[in-house]
Amino acid sequence: MGKRRIGILTGGGDCPGLNAVIRGVTKSAINRYGMEVIGFHDGFRGLIEEKFSFLTFESVSGILNQGGTIIGSDNKANPFQYRPHDCGKDVHVDVSDQCMQFYEDLGLDALICIGGDGTMTIAGMLMQKGAKVVGLPKTIDKDLEGTDITFGFDTARAIATEAIDRVHTTAQSHQRVMLVEVMGRNAGWLAMEAGIAGGADIVLIPEIPYDMEEVLRVVRRRNHFGRRFSIIAVAEGTKGIDGEQTVHKIVADSPDPVRLGGVSHAIAHEIESKTGIECRVVILGHVQRGGSPTPSDRLLGTQFAVKAMELVDKGHFNCMVGLQGCSMVAVPLEKVMGKQRLVPLDSPLIDAAMAVATSFGVKEIR
Ligand code: F6P
């Protein structure tokens, strides 16, 4: 029997820790199981367009602390809805059979798909066509079902917390309201955790549509008691009780075309015009996805990777590795596909934050 061979790809938006995972998969595949590793370039695009390279001990050395992904990522290429470069505008074709043929031609024993919910959904669809898949949960949004944590989140939370810490002094000096807008799509995990860790006075998340009257009341009240500045952590997916999310742009050829962002400007305008207090907006954007991963993300990524290889070795496929409590578990892909894990309203963290007078922009959480 020849050497076993696995493929690996990183799909969706990048985040810190991807390289730690690529290294963990490659090194343990070679070192512990004597396997060969193929890295597909730019997510599923590499599988579709047959672009890949062999990953070796040498090629993954020295990348543990590097941000991004050495094999590239892509949040548009989908084998089930592929948009060829050279065809007319809105033409999408299903090239999944061609991808499965390539998977067979390469003699892959497994495909490791590292990504968020979009990547897991595509991985699950390839599984239904016969691919042996193991998923690894990546996203700064922490919105994947089946796992308490995703790698990339800890680093993004640290960056967002530092930003909130930093605006405190300038907000105080100028007696301003500073709004710090954080990524996270439809989930408020990042804004909530960074906001609470950074001591924000108000935290606005999509799961709790805000009431502008309450936001104004909190800001005015702080002023009244001599706290002449306020910090508001805002999730990009935040919406008001009567409103909708603020769409920054539509990326037409992306499977998830909506890009959120900019809601803070409208909130700032409202606060400034109703209270007369000067407001400033800081939108953190992709800064949250860049740079070196925290030690936690490196450790988590390495453990996830090693667990994935253990599952491959045992022939346990069609699952995503997750961390539940203190245990690394294999979650069936069907339980992850097409789902989003949002902040539950009975979260102990929300309760703790409210106990220390942090506002969520509503009188009462229901
Ligand atoms: O899912 C990760 C994420 O960073 C979201 O938090 C954000 O809404 C989105 O990706 C941004 O996507 P893009 O990189 O395409 O602008």
Description of the structure:
- The protein has 366 residues and is of the alpha/beta class.
- The chain folds into two domains: 5-151 and 293-335, 3-Layer(aba) Sandwich (Rossmann fold), CATH 3.40.50; 156-290 and 344-355, 3-Layer(aba) Sandwich (Rossmann fold).
- The chain is 35% helix and 18% strand.
- It contains ten helices and 13 strands.
- The chain has helices spanning 18-33, 44-48, 96-105, 117-128, 153-174, 189-197, 212-224, 263-275, 295-314, 348-355; strands at residues 5-10, 36-40, 52-55, 110-115, 133-137, 177-182, 202-204, 230-235, 247-250, 258-260, 279-283, 319-324, 327-332.
- The strands form three sheets. The protein has a seven-stranded mixed sheet with strand order 3-2-1-4-5-12-13, with helices on both faces. A four-stranded parallel sheet has the order 7-8-6-11, sandwiched between helices.
- α1 runs parallel beside α9 (295-314), α5 (153-174) crosses α6 (189-197) and α7 (212-224) packs across α8.
- The longest helix is centred in the middle third of the chain and has 22 residues, at 153-174.
- It is elongated and about 75 Å long.
